Amino acid sequence: MKIPRFVTRLAAIIFVLTAFGLSTVAQNRERFGISAKAGGVNAVTGKVMVKRGVTEQILTSQDDLESGDRVTTGADSQAEVLLNPGSYLRLSENSEFVMVDNSLDNLLVRINKGSAIIEATGPDNLDLRIPVVTAQQRMTIVRAGIYRINVDAGRTDLLVRKGRVWLDDDPNNVVKSGKRVSFTSPTPQIAKLTKLDRDEFDDWSRARGQTLARANEKLSARALNSYLSTDSWFMFSARFSRWGLWTWSPNTSCYTFLPFYYGWSSPYGRYYGMYAPFEPYYYPPNYNGPTIVSNPTNSGGTNGSSSGGFGTPPGGGVTGSPSSPNVGSQAGPRDPDSGGRSINRIKDPN
To answer: Which of 34-38, 104-108, 148-152 has the lowest average pLDDT?
Structure first.
């Protein structure tokens, strides 16, 4: 049966428009460079699928998750998703989670199976509220730290390497650093973390955290200032973020975090050297956005080193970044349909 010529042309036009649309998404991430949204896919390794409604498709590092999207990883596959600015969710192989609500005011994720790690950056006294649910338990991350959640066969394990978690939204029911809680009937079991509670997934998350913190140090102040000087875009984004913004890093081809004040760091031990002094709830007359500056060397970038307020470092102006150990290059995530082509290569910015 001969296919009519107009059908062939129509198919070609649809293909070109689809390809153009996907290309535009990637270019927009680089062009606009700043986001305050949750749900951005920051890295994908191997074959990762997303189900939206009744449609299931391959997830890529250029996608943005919507409320209700379900993400599933296959064997030897991993994914990293942006939560509220400054917090990352990393999904291990053979795992599944649902972005129940991607709004910053009502952010909620559900872990269905497998393992997930949430890295929440910031000073120790930062008052976070990141709710996570499983079939067995509801928990709320309230402090910067590193949290691993394992779900398997009617059991949920919560591992708090650093930080603090409320159970069932109860401030009096707290799990602190160094604890492991297994939620099984009839009562939860509590134990101390040991070296046996660490595996390759933890190592990958640590490497990602350190690499993205270094990516912040290597951001271009000139490029960021041009973004932030655009009143409408910056003000719109800042209104929806309490502590900072997701910022595109050309060095790593993904987003890193740009805080609104200095002293911000990763719980994995690296600090976020570039920041944008800004109070999102106060708009001075004729305000054209902040001027990007570097973290002062005397702040050290460790958790709790921040003064807790917004503004420039003591003495003002741009200061040098402290030296820190190198982190090895990370293997780039692969496109499962292209025989191993890198779709979001993670590079060491040094």
So the answer is: 34-38
Q: How far is CA 295 from CA 18, 254, 286, 315, in A?
A: 42, 22, 26, 12
State mean pLDDT over 5-34: 46
Q: Are residues 269 and 337 in the same domain?
A: yes
Length of the chain: 350
How many structural domains does the chain have? 2
Domain housing 86? 33-203
- Which CATH number is 142's domain given? 2.60.120.1440
**What is the residue whose two structure tokens read 């307020």?**
309
Q: Is 165 left (phi over 0), alpha (psi -120 to 50) or beta?
A: beta
In order, the DSSP letters of 152-208 are ETTEEEEEEEESEEEETTEEEEEEETTEEEEE-SSS-EEEE--GGG--HHHHHHHHH
SS3 content of the chain, % helix, strand, coil (to 5): 20, 35, 45
Q: Of 150, 170, 203, which residue sits at a domain end?
A: 203
DSSP calls for 9-22: HHHHHHHHHHHHHH
pLDDT digits (tens, 9 = 90+) for 81-140: 999 999 999 999 999 999 999 998 899 999 999 999 999 999 888 889 999 999 999 999
- Check whether residue 141 and residue 39 sit in a common domain: yes
Say if 43 falls within a structural domain.
yes
DSSP H/E element including 226: helix 221-228
Q: 152 CB contacts (<8 Å, ≥6 apart)?
A: 113, 114
Chain-centroid distance, C-alpha 56: 23
